[in-house]
Amino acid sequence: MFIRNAWYVAAWSSEISTRPFARTVLEEPVALFRRGSGTVAAVEDRCCHRGLPLSLGEVRGECIVCGYHGIAYDADGRCSSIPGQQHVSPRMRVRAFPTHEQDGLIWIWMGTPDAADRRTIPRYAYHEDRAEWPHRTCVQHLRCNYRLVIDNLLDLTHLAFVHKATIGGDPDAHARAQFSVAATERGVQFIRWLLNSLPPPTYVQAVNFTGRVDRWMEFEFVAPAVVYQFTGALAVGEGAYERGNRRGGFALRIFHGITPETEDTCHYFWSGAHGYRQSEPAVTDTLFAALSATFAEDAAILEAQHASLRARPAPLFNTVHDRARVIAERALDKLFAAE
Amino acid sequence: MFIRNAWYVAAWSSEISTRPFARTVLEEPVALFRRGSGTVAAVEDRCCHRGLPLSLGEVRGECIVCGYHGIAYDADGRCSSIPGQQHVSPRMRVRAFPTHEQDGLIWIWMGTPDAADRRTIPRYAYHEDRAEWPHRTCVQHLRCNYRLVIDNLLDLTHLAFVHKATIGGDPDAHARAQFSVAATERGVQFIRWLLNSLPPPTYVQAVNFTGRVDRWMEFEFVAPAVVYQFTGALAVGEGAYERGNRRGGFALRIFHGITPETEDTCHYFWSGAHGYRQSEPAVTDTLFAALSATFAEDAAILEAQHASLRARPAPLFNTVHDRARVIAERALDKLFAAE
Amino acid sequence: MFIRNAWYVAAWSSEISTRPFARTVLEEPVALFRRGSGTVAAVEDRCCHRGLPLSLGEVRGECIVCGYHGIAYDADGRCSSIPGQQHVSPRMRVRAFPTHEQDGLIWIWMGTPDAADRRTIPRYAYHEDRAEWPHRTCVQHLRCNYRLVIDNLLDLTHLAFVHKATIGGDPDAHARAQFSVAATERGVQFIRWLLNSLPPPTYVQAVNFTGRVDRWMEFEFVAPAVVYQFTGALAVGEGAYERGNRRGGFALRIFHGITPETEDTCHYFWSGAHGYRQSEPAVTDTLFAALSATFAEDAAILEAQHASLRARPAPLFNTVHDRARVIAERALDKLFAAE
Lengths: 339, 339, 339
Hints:
The structure is a homotrimer. Chain A is α+β, with helices and mostly antiparallel strands. Chain A is 22% helix and 33% strand. Chain A contains six helices and 18 strands. The first copy, chain A, has a seven-stranded antiparallel beta sheet. Chain A has a four-stranded antiparallel beta sheet with strand order 2-3-4-9, with no helix packed on it. A four-stranded antiparallel beta sheet of chain A has the order 5-6-7-8, with no helix packed on it. In chain A, a hairpin with a 2-residue loop joins strand 2 (21-25) and strand 3. The longest helix of chain A is centred in the last third of the chain and has 31 residues, at 281-311. The relative contact order of chain A is 0.15. The interface between A and B is medium-sized, with 25 and 25 residues.
């Protein structure tokens, strides 16, 4: 039950070189490789001669060459040569998947190739703006359905429980948060404001707040599998809430790209960028370490949740905090129905 | 194929604290916890909001609180509060299981709650009499159906083969043993006598026998899943057999509670108590070490037997030593038919 | 989908002693043991009393004795004694499998016992001729269908790719090789000649070639599961090709016996014998190390190939190098159809 006609993150640009790379996306084994000309290609990870994964082979020029008997395929999946054989049947080919490299990410389209329109790939220019938004990137392999990761990001009341040891904070403050949510054309966005609140210790450490702050958490989900997060705080009086000011103070931008591997596993691509003290690599490192610890807490919950849901399907009940999640589900259902 | 309307050992009392505890019983994930008031409770280990196992949460007062979004449930499984939400639907609840703490054990009833009658819980007062019967307890996780553990205990001719390195002894002596077996209301009991025999080295070491002994092994199976074992020896002439004397000499009482986890796994709760040299903790330790080694030998056999039976079902044949086992099977079949 | 009426290698002779030995063949668990009289026997690895694998028991005289309750079976699978029981039902028996020890191998017949004809066992006298053909033996457990191992041996164009780090050599030389293939009564044989070619470094190291050589690779497949390999080289002019001379130079004989364990796993028995410097054990060791490294390269490919084929069945295409493989498949299909 996957949405196939959609762009998913297949890899970080930095993961793909001229050494073939194996990744399963939507239950399809894919061999990704960077051609000699630099462009990234993605083909079915299975030679059509004897079935060996092509990712065990090597790249030669623009082609990927099987590591068993040397059969070569071009980026379109056509068999281009067989050692010791003159004629190559045009029927010998493997499936090729449209890919596009943009914003430091390799995007892949697993559906009908003709429907692949690059203009619909979610943009994230912050990855290309390291001066203003220094960041580090990560890919986690999670043993849960990808939708659980999205669900997790769309109900922040989990912070006080899952992350009480790290970024959690006071459950009541979270419950009191001002919250507005709205459906968008491709998903949902919401913003939570903790106005006139004490900044968390990590914020104080980062930017030396000396008093109370207005704190926001702004999320946008773009179906099927991207979430943008913009979290920050400004000193009370600087107009973060009243005037939409975002300059100075504390500011994080987190990219979340979640790609189904199977119904029971997913690849979770994230980056964490900071909009303060941009010239200090140690700040980038500290942020990355903090996010890694936080997302490890989520991973433990998500995997236990998935195992539990898989073991015994039974009705679940929503709370008032599930509004964004319910809108996101509708967006996913709409995409799914369109296929 | 489980007998559900029955009491099973869910845990040792010592295992359950105010930190929630996960154990699967009859294929149902259960969260056990000790409420603030001290009573033990057991609920379905799955929050009805988003499915996280409740055992990953924490106990607050009389309630168990989900570790994902803080939803609380009381000991009856009713949702008692949702952070940031006024109204709680009475439909939001998880299943609760009747439990009872007795004789150092937590008993659980997985069937129809109304049918749970505490008076039918098998008693084992020796657990509460540490002065006369000092003991240590254990729970082993076995990869076999629970019935194989019971079968093992009901045919002691395995001692000479499985335990030849430990408590086995002479196969012929076991074959010569005087044996009487009788069905009981809830199962079967049998007694084996090795009259006028040489005591095993461990017996001599324990109580300094200087000559031959009359040795007994008395077992009672209470369906579906408890076996009481009373093993001992007295010097010949002290009337163990003739007059039913049990005072002095060597005496062990072993409790066996076997609880199905799945069709392929079980929890094996056992304790070993000694009725001699009761004031010497080292004796308790030595006994525990000996039993642990012996039951590890059984575990290896049981797991191999289970794997073999699972791999290829085929008819099996009984021997003359299967009498107690056959009566026990009938008792189990009767309980099963009653459901 | 196994061919059952056939002889398979069950074990190396050296593996079987009076300690029972477990091996699964064609999905049947088998207990192999050497009787007191020295003959090897094979019975179903499952006691018909309570199902324990008999391989966990022990050999007593001509019988195998179950490690649970001491029930004994003779080499024909008949229950010969039950401790403490006078009468033994003739229905108590386990299946016995015809076996034969020959050429250092234990052969087993998993089909209809009456059809087992020892004269059809593939011979390999080189195992008994250690003076002329010193060798070492190995058994590898592979996570692939046994037919993939045979396929691998019948298309040597993989050498230049899979074994480029070891014995591979120049892909073009392999493509230029003179190749003749012919169906045999029980399978297929082929010979590849690399005439007037530079000997690989390992050949030079072995027998001090100083110039070009004529090099051959001669393979014979005997369905369902044996491949004989005879690989060698003589200096150009010594008539290897023209006159069939095989004396001197470099010569290896490799035995391959591949026995299905399950549809997804197999036992790969191989030996490597050298026909040069026969009195130097270090040469035998060097050869064994080289073959082990080479077959480990194959194992990695075969297991990846099997996993890939299992994950997604889809049509495969042959190349010109698949001729021998296609003939072998026909031989297997014929045997299969005959059952």
